[in-house]
Amino acid sequence: MGSLKLTKAQTDRIRELRSQGVGYRLIAQELDISRDTVRYYCKTHGLDGFAEEQMPAGTDESHCLQCGSEIQQPETGRKRRFCSDACRWKWWHEHGEEVMRPAANRQEVVCVNCGKPFSAYRSKGRKYCSHACYIRDRFWRLEDGREPYISPSKSSDLSKMLYMLFRIKYSTMISPLSLWESA
Prior knowledge:
The chain is mainly alpha-helical. The chain is built from 7 helices and 2 strands. A hairpin with a 6-residue loop joins strand 1 (106-110) and strand 2. The N and C termini lie far apart (74 Å).
């Protein structure tokens, strides 16, 4: 196995996150390194095992995450994190977005149709800010004075031929948009 080339800041952050009970996958995502690199570092430095085992004493799960009241934990099964459904709902309503969709996984993209910037979550191929923009770009191109949509799967020669046929046919038809605007 090759040598690990982790910086001091990365190793300090790994130790800090493991002491908070964070798993290998989330640490790897935050530091933008592989999960196996994090796991190998933790294993060779005595930080392996379940993330809960790495948490310092006194950070037990005996208090509600929302209100802080004491929770009676069951003998078996999953440990409770909230004292009631109301606290659970309120906590997830306030913190859900940052837990389920961290900011590190968001990217700023510009809509192909309207040019408005929007935030896309883990979607490298997303081009539109809304379904309405997709529909407008995909099906209303001629009404907007642009070339019709041509699927990338079609060959360029076939696409050009279809475009010319569609353009000739369309120029002889009445536009539904022009009927709407005249009313």
